Amino acid sequence: MPLPSQPLRKLGFLTIGLFDEADPRTGHESTLEIIELGERLGFDSAWLRHRHLQYGISSPVAVLAAASQRTTRIELGTAVIPLGWENPLRLAEDLATVDILSGGRLNPGVSAGPPMRYDQVKDALYPDTADAEDFGHDRVARLLGFVRGEPATDFSGVEGFEVFSDRVQPHSAGLGRRLWYGGGSLRSARWAGEHGMNFLTSSVVKAEESEDFAEIQLSHVRAFRAHHPDGDRARVSQGLVVVPTDSATPEQRAKYEAYAEQRTPRTAVPQGPARLMFAPDLVGTSAEIAERLYAHAAFREIDEVAFALPFTFEHADYVQILTDIATGLGPALGWQPSARRGQPAGGLSR
Fold first, then answer.
1. pTM over 0.70
2. Domain 10-152+164-341, architecture per CATH
3. Per-block average pLDDT, block size 10, for the chain (350 residues)?
4. Where are the domains of the chain?
5. For the residues of 271-308, what is the DSSP string, one character each?
Protein backbone atom coordinates (compact mmCIF):
# COMPACT_ATOMS: atom_id res chain seq x y z
CA MET A 1 0.00 0.00 0.00
CA PRO A 2 1.47 3.41 -0.91
CA LEU A 3 2.06 5.96 1.81
CA PRO A 4 0.27 9.35 1.73
CA SER A 5 2.43 12.40 1.18
CA GLN A 6 1.24 13.72 4.53
CA PRO A 7 -0.88 12.22 7.30
CA LEU A 8 -4.54 13.07 7.53
CA ARG A 9 -4.77 15.93 10.02
CA LYS A 10 -8.52 16.35 10.60
CA LEU A 11 -11.17 13.64 10.38
CA GLY A 12 -14.86 14.52 10.34
CA PHE A 13 -18.17 12.95 9.37
CA LEU A 14 -21.39 14.20 7.79
CA THR A 15 -24.93 12.98 8.50
CA ILE A 16 -28.35 13.88 7.11
CA GLY A 17 -30.24 13.20 10.36
CA LEU A 18 -33.27 11.34 9.03
CA PHE A 19 -36.42 10.97 11.12
CA ASP A 20 -39.87 9.40 11.03
CA GLU A 21 -42.64 11.92 10.36
CA ALA A 22 -44.73 10.32 13.14
CA ASP A 23 -41.84 10.42 15.65
CA PRO A 24 -39.40 13.22 14.74
CA ARG A 25 -37.87 13.46 18.22
CA THR A 26 -36.32 9.99 18.02
CA GLY A 27 -34.51 10.83 14.78
CA HIS A 28 -33.18 14.10 16.14
CA GLU A 29 -32.02 12.40 19.33
CA SER A 30 -30.28 9.76 17.24
CA THR A 31 -28.36 12.51 15.44
CA LEU A 32 -27.30 14.09 18.74
CA GLU A 33 -26.17 10.71 20.05
CA ILE A 34 -24.14 10.13 16.89
CA ILE A 35 -22.40 13.48 17.42
CA GLU A 36 -21.67 12.53 21.02
CA LEU A 37 -20.25 9.22 19.81
CA GLY A 38 -18.08 11.08 17.32
CA GLU A 39 -16.57 13.14 20.11
CA ARG A 40 -15.92 10.06 22.22
CA LEU A 41 -14.21 8.34 19.31
CA GLY A 42 -11.92 11.32 18.82
CA PHE A 43 -13.35 12.75 15.57
CA ASP A 44 -12.33 16.34 14.93
CA SER A 45 -15.66 17.45 13.46
CA ALA A 46 -19.30 16.52 12.91
CA TRP A 47 -21.31 18.06 10.09
CA LEU A 48 -25.06 18.16 9.40
CA ARG A 49 -26.73 18.21 6.03
CA HIS A 50 -29.66 20.54 5.43
CA ARG A 51 -33.06 19.41 4.13
CA HIS A 52 -36.22 21.47 3.62
CA LEU A 53 -39.72 19.96 3.35
CA GLN A 54 -38.19 16.50 3.72
CA TYR A 55 -37.66 14.08 6.61
CA GLY A 56 -34.14 15.24 7.40
CA ILE A 57 -32.83 18.06 9.55
CA SER A 58 -34.35 21.35 8.37
CA SER A 59 -32.67 23.47 11.04
CA PRO A 60 -29.09 22.26 11.52
CA VAL A 61 -28.13 25.43 13.39
CA ALA A 62 -30.74 24.66 16.06
CA VAL A 63 -29.62 21.03 16.30
CA LEU A 64 -25.99 22.10 16.59
CA ALA A 65 -26.97 24.49 19.39
CA ALA A 66 -28.25 21.43 21.25
CA ALA A 67 -25.12 19.45 20.31
CA SER A 68 -22.93 22.25 21.65
CA GLN A 69 -24.37 21.66 25.11
CA ARG A 70 -23.79 17.89 24.96
CA THR A 71 -20.19 18.02 23.73
CA THR A 72 -17.06 19.91 24.74
CA ARG A 73 -14.45 19.52 22.02
CA ILE A 74 -15.70 18.34 18.62
CA GLU A 75 -16.15 21.02 15.95
CA LEU A 76 -19.71 21.40 14.62
CA GLY A 77 -20.45 22.21 11.00
CA THR A 78 -23.15 22.51 8.37
CA ALA A 79 -22.62 21.01 4.91
CA VAL A 80 -24.30 22.97 3.65
CA ILE A 81 -26.93 25.62 4.36
CA PRO A 82 -28.47 26.67 1.01
CA LEU A 83 -28.66 30.44 1.36
CA GLY A 84 -31.59 30.69 -1.02
CA TRP A 85 -33.75 29.73 1.95
CA GLU A 86 -32.18 32.24 4.33
CA ASN A 87 -32.06 35.92 5.21
CA PRO A 88 -28.30 36.51 5.58
CA LEU A 89 -28.71 39.04 8.40
CA ARG A 90 -30.88 36.75 10.52
CA LEU A 91 -28.70 33.75 9.77
CA ALA A 92 -25.61 35.69 10.86
CA GLU A 93 -27.26 36.30 14.23
CA ASP A 94 -28.09 32.62 14.67
CA LEU A 95 -24.60 31.48 13.66
CA ALA A 96 -22.88 33.91 16.00
CA THR A 97 -25.15 32.87 18.88
CA VAL A 98 -24.43 29.16 18.42
CA ASP A 99 -20.71 29.85 18.01
CA ILE A 100 -20.70 31.68 21.34
CA LEU A 101 -22.61 28.84 23.01
CA SER A 102 -20.22 26.25 21.59
CA GLY A 103 -17.10 28.06 22.72
CA GLY A 104 -15.99 28.85 19.17
CA ARG A 105 -16.53 25.42 17.60
CA LEU A 106 -19.00 26.27 14.83
CA ASN A 107 -17.97 25.78 11.18
CA PRO A 108 -20.87 26.99 9.02
CA GLY A 109 -20.85 25.74 5.45
CA VAL A 110 -23.10 27.50 2.94
CA SER A 111 -23.90 27.45 -0.76
CA ALA A 112 -25.43 29.76 -3.36
CA GLY A 113 -28.16 29.09 -5.89
CA PRO A 114 -31.98 29.10 -5.92
CA PRO A 115 -33.86 26.80 -3.55
CA MET A 116 -34.52 23.29 -4.78
CA ARG A 117 -37.89 23.03 -6.55
CA TYR A 118 -38.17 26.81 -6.42
CA ASP A 119 -41.24 27.04 -8.64
CA GLN A 120 -43.19 24.90 -6.16
CA VAL A 121 -42.03 26.70 -3.01
CA LYS A 122 -41.45 30.32 -4.03
CA ASP A 123 -44.96 31.54 -3.16
CA ALA A 124 -44.58 30.23 0.37
CA LEU A 125 -40.96 31.35 0.79
CA TYR A 126 -40.99 34.76 -0.95
CA PRO A 127 -44.64 35.59 -1.72
CA ASP A 128 -43.93 39.22 -2.65
CA THR A 129 -40.34 39.13 -3.91
CA ALA A 130 -39.91 35.71 -5.58
CA ASP A 131 -38.91 37.16 -8.95
CA ALA A 132 -36.61 39.80 -7.45
CA GLU A 133 -34.51 37.62 -5.10
CA ASP A 134 -30.81 37.27 -5.93
CA PHE A 135 -29.53 33.75 -5.22
CA GLY A 136 -26.00 34.29 -6.48
CA HIS A 137 -22.71 34.84 -4.70
CA ASP A 138 -23.74 38.33 -3.57
CA ARG A 139 -26.03 36.66 -1.04
CA VAL A 140 -23.04 34.77 0.37
CA ALA A 141 -21.03 38.00 0.44
CA ARG A 142 -23.75 39.65 2.55
CA LEU A 143 -23.55 36.82 5.09
CA LEU A 144 -19.75 37.04 5.15
CA GLY A 145 -19.87 40.75 5.81
CA PHE A 146 -22.38 40.48 8.64
CA VAL A 147 -20.51 37.61 10.32
CA ARG A 148 -17.20 39.44 10.00
CA GLY A 149 -18.58 42.56 11.68
CA GLU A 150 -19.45 44.88 8.82
CA PRO A 151 -22.25 47.39 9.58
CA ALA A 152 -25.81 46.20 9.05
CA THR A 153 -27.28 49.66 9.66
CA ASP A 154 -26.18 53.29 9.86
CA PHE A 155 -27.58 53.71 13.37
CA SER A 156 -25.97 52.87 16.69
CA GLY A 157 -26.28 54.40 20.12
CA VAL A 158 -28.86 54.88 22.86
CA GLU A 159 -32.54 55.44 22.30
CA GLY A 160 -34.44 55.78 25.56
CA PHE A 161 -33.41 52.84 27.72
CA GLU A 162 -32.24 50.68 24.79
CA VAL A 163 -28.74 50.44 23.35
CA PHE A 164 -28.35 49.64 19.64
CA SER A 165 -25.37 48.28 17.68
CA ASP A 166 -24.66 48.88 14.02
CA ARG A 167 -23.40 45.31 13.57
CA VAL A 168 -24.73 41.82 14.29
CA GLN A 169 -24.80 40.90 17.97
CA PRO A 170 -23.42 38.84 19.48
CA HIS A 171 -20.26 39.27 17.46
CA SER A 172 -18.03 36.18 17.49
CA ALA A 173 -14.61 37.39 16.40
CA GLY A 174 -13.25 34.06 15.12
CA LEU A 175 -16.35 32.88 13.25
CA GLY A 176 -15.49 34.76 10.06
CA ARG A 177 -12.40 32.56 9.64
CA ARG A 178 -14.48 29.39 10.04
CA LEU A 179 -16.98 29.98 7.24
CA TRP A 180 -16.95 27.35 4.47
CA TYR A 181 -18.29 27.39 0.94
CA GLY A 182 -19.62 24.15 -0.49
CA GLY A 183 -18.93 24.14 -4.20
CA GLY A 184 -18.98 21.77 -7.14
CA SER A 185 -17.69 23.99 -9.95
CA LEU A 186 -14.53 25.89 -10.88
CA ARG A 187 -16.39 29.20 -10.62
CA SER A 188 -17.47 28.43 -7.05
CA ALA A 189 -13.97 27.30 -6.10
CA ARG A 190 -12.43 30.50 -7.43
CA TRP A 191 -15.05 32.71 -5.76
CA ALA A 192 -14.58 31.03 -2.37
CA GLY A 193 -10.83 31.50 -2.63
CA GLU A 194 -11.07 35.15 -3.64
CA HIS A 195 -13.30 35.85 -0.62
CA GLY A 196 -11.06 34.12 1.90
CA MET A 197 -13.47 31.32 2.79
CA ASN A 198 -12.65 27.68 3.51
CA PHE A 199 -13.75 25.19 0.85
CA LEU A 200 -15.87 22.05 1.11
CA THR A 201 -15.34 19.96 -2.00
CA SER A 202 -18.59 18.36 -3.04
CA SER A 203 -19.31 14.70 -3.73
CA VAL A 204 -21.36 16.07 -6.67
CA VAL A 205 -19.40 18.14 -9.21
CA LYS A 206 -19.85 19.59 -12.68
CA ALA A 207 -17.97 17.84 -15.48
CA GLU A 208 -16.35 20.94 -16.94
CA GLU A 209 -12.83 19.95 -17.97
CA SER A 210 -12.93 16.19 -17.42
CA GLU A 211 -15.25 13.25 -16.85
CA ASP A 212 -13.00 11.76 -14.18
CA PHE A 213 -14.43 12.63 -10.74
CA ALA A 214 -11.09 12.70 -8.92
CA GLU A 215 -9.53 14.94 -11.56
CA ILE A 216 -12.50 17.32 -11.40
CA GLN A 217 -12.30 17.54 -7.62
CA LEU A 218 -8.54 18.09 -7.84
CA SER A 219 -9.05 20.98 -10.26
CA HIS A 220 -11.42 22.60 -7.76
CA VAL A 221 -8.93 22.27 -4.91
CA ARG A 222 -6.17 23.84 -6.98
CA ALA A 223 -8.36 26.63 -8.36
CA PHE A 224 -9.53 27.51 -4.85
CA ARG A 225 -6.02 27.69 -3.43
CA ALA A 226 -4.70 29.60 -6.44
CA HIS A 227 -7.18 32.38 -5.69
CA HIS A 228 -7.00 32.31 -1.86
CA PRO A 229 -4.76 34.72 0.08
CA ASP A 230 -3.33 31.76 2.02
CA GLY A 231 -2.41 29.83 -1.12
CA ASP A 232 -1.51 26.20 -0.46
CA ARG A 233 -2.30 26.68 3.25
CA ALA A 234 -5.96 27.49 2.54
CA ARG A 235 -8.25 24.95 4.19
CA VAL A 236 -10.02 22.37 2.04
CA SER A 237 -12.13 19.48 3.33
CA GLN A 238 -12.88 16.61 0.98
CA GLY A 239 -16.34 15.08 0.88
CA LEU A 240 -16.80 11.40 -0.04
CA VAL A 241 -19.08 8.56 1.10
CA VAL A 242 -17.03 5.84 2.82
CA VAL A 243 -18.42 2.69 4.43
CA PRO A 244 -15.80 0.53 6.18
CA THR A 245 -16.92 -3.02 6.92
CA ASP A 246 -14.24 -4.22 9.36
CA SER A 247 -16.66 -4.97 12.22
CA ALA A 248 -19.86 -5.18 10.16
CA THR A 249 -22.07 -8.25 10.35
CA PRO A 250 -22.67 -10.26 7.19
CA GLU A 251 -26.14 -8.70 6.97
CA GLN A 252 -24.70 -5.19 7.24
CA ARG A 253 -22.08 -5.89 4.59
CA ALA A 254 -24.75 -7.14 2.20
CA LYS A 255 -26.87 -4.04 2.83
CA TYR A 256 -23.92 -1.68 2.31
CA GLU A 257 -22.84 -3.37 -0.91
CA ALA A 258 -26.41 -3.30 -2.27
CA TYR A 259 -26.65 0.42 -1.41
CA ALA A 260 -23.44 1.21 -3.28
CA GLU A 261 -24.36 -0.97 -6.25
CA GLN A 262 -27.70 0.79 -6.62
CA ARG A 263 -25.96 4.18 -6.75
CA THR A 264 -23.02 3.16 -8.96
CA PRO A 265 -24.61 3.76 -12.41
CA ARG A 266 -24.86 7.51 -11.77
CA THR A 267 -21.09 7.70 -11.17
CA ALA A 268 -20.11 6.42 -14.63
CA VAL A 269 -21.03 9.37 -16.85
CA PRO A 270 -22.22 12.99 -16.42
CA GLN A 271 -25.89 13.26 -15.49
CA GLY A 272 -28.46 15.67 -16.90
CA PRO A 273 -28.10 19.06 -18.63
CA ALA A 274 -25.77 20.30 -15.85
CA ARG A 275 -23.41 17.35 -16.51
CA LEU A 276 -23.18 16.40 -12.86
CA MET A 277 -20.68 13.78 -11.75
CA PHE A 278 -21.26 11.79 -8.57
CA ALA A 279 -18.47 10.32 -6.45
CA PRO A 280 -18.47 6.53 -6.15
CA ASP A 281 -19.29 5.19 -2.69
CA LEU A 282 -16.27 3.47 -1.12
CA VAL A 283 -17.31 0.22 0.58
CA GLY A 284 -14.83 -2.33 1.95
CA THR A 285 -12.36 -2.88 4.73
CA SER A 286 -10.44 0.08 6.10
CA ALA A 287 -7.30 -1.16 4.33
CA GLU A 288 -9.14 -1.42 0.99
CA ILE A 289 -10.68 2.04 1.32
CA ALA A 290 -7.36 3.58 2.37
CA GLU A 291 -5.68 2.17 -0.71
CA ARG A 292 -8.38 3.63 -2.95
CA LEU A 293 -8.04 7.01 -1.23
CA TYR A 294 -4.27 7.03 -1.64
CA ALA A 295 -4.89 6.57 -5.38
CA HIS A 296 -7.42 9.45 -5.43
CA ALA A 297 -5.90 12.54 -7.06
CA ALA A 298 -7.79 15.05 -4.90
CA PHE A 299 -7.22 13.17 -1.64
CA ARG A 300 -3.47 13.48 -2.13
CA GLU A 301 -3.85 17.30 -2.05
CA ILE A 302 -5.75 17.65 1.24
CA ASP A 303 -5.29 16.88 4.93
CA GLU A 304 -8.93 17.24 6.09
CA VAL A 305 -11.98 15.11 5.28
CA ALA A 306 -15.66 15.02 6.18
CA PHE A 307 -16.74 11.50 5.24
CA ALA A 308 -20.46 11.31 4.52
CA LEU A 309 -22.66 8.68 6.16
CA PRO A 310 -25.13 7.00 3.78
CA PHE A 311 -28.66 8.36 3.86
CA THR A 312 -30.93 5.49 4.83
CA PHE A 313 -29.17 3.27 7.33
CA GLU A 314 -30.09 2.47 10.93
CA HIS A 315 -28.59 3.95 14.10
CA ALA A 316 -26.64 0.74 14.82
CA ASP A 317 -25.15 0.88 11.30
CA TYR A 318 -23.88 4.40 11.89
CA VAL A 319 -22.33 3.36 15.20
CA GLN A 320 -20.47 0.53 13.44
CA ILE A 321 -19.37 2.71 10.51
CA LEU A 322 -18.14 5.58 12.70
CA THR A 323 -16.33 3.20 15.03
CA ASP A 324 -14.55 1.54 12.11
CA ILE A 325 -13.63 4.91 10.59
CA ALA A 326 -12.14 6.10 13.88
CA THR A 327 -10.37 2.89 14.85
CA GLY A 328 -9.42 1.50 11.43
CA LEU A 329 -9.64 3.83 8.44
CA GLY A 330 -8.45 7.01 10.17
CA PRO A 331 -5.26 5.45 11.56
CA ALA A 332 -4.63 3.80 8.16
CA LEU A 333 -4.59 7.33 6.72
CA GLY A 334 -2.13 8.57 9.32
CA TRP A 335 -4.74 10.25 11.51
CA GLN A 336 -4.58 10.21 15.29
CA PRO A 337 -7.83 10.58 17.27
CA SER A 338 -8.17 13.51 19.61
CA ALA A 339 -8.92 10.92 22.31
CA ARG A 340 -5.18 10.30 22.48
CA ARG A 341 -4.75 13.92 23.56
CA GLY A 342 -6.76 13.52 26.72
CA GLN A 343 -10.31 12.72 25.61
CA PRO A 344 -11.77 9.35 26.63
CA ALA A 345 -12.70 7.17 23.67
CA GLY A 346 -15.53 4.72 23.70
CA GLY A 347 -18.75 3.61 22.12
CA LEU A 348 -22.30 4.77 22.48
CA SER A 349 -25.09 2.27 22.14
CA ARG A 350 -28.77 2.83 21.72
1. yes
2. Alpha-Beta Barrel (3.20)
3. 70 96 98 98 97 96 98 98 98 98 98 96 97 97 98 97 98 97 97 98 92 96 98 96 98 97 92 94 98 96 96 96 98 85 41
4. 10-152+164-341
5. BTTTTEEEPPPEEE-HHHHHHHHHT-TTGGG-SEEEEE
